[in-house]
Model the fold of this input.
Amino acid sequence: MLSNKGKYGLKAMLHLAGLRENEIASAAQIAQMHEIPKKFLDQIFAELRCSGLIYSKKGKAGGFALAKSASAIKAGDVIRVLDGPIAPFPCASMKFYRRCDDCDGEDTCAVHRLMVDAREALCKVLDKRSLAEMLKQQGLKEVA
Done:
């Protein structure tokens, strides 16, 4: 299951994707508009900034903006930064694989095969959809 952190991160990133060129938004504005706890959003933005998906401008008129175009950032990029691997169980993870303690063998484990299929289906959706496409679905368009 994806976390609130990932959901809030996507909402905040969509907000930033809707900004005009050279426009920035404060974390306080975004938190209030999208009903995200401000301290939690600060943590989310710190992780997104470290990953290179957003940048920050300090000072009185400071705030945040996307570091790349909205069409270059996929939902899966945001989710992986905030929630880690997209896999229902560690045995289905591509990069953070860990065998289940109670497994006799993945070759014969129907649960493992199902979880791999679930991971692939979810990744297919999240890695295909960009922030720009998500804005279009909301009836908005990327300004920058």
In short: The longest strand covers residues 54-57.
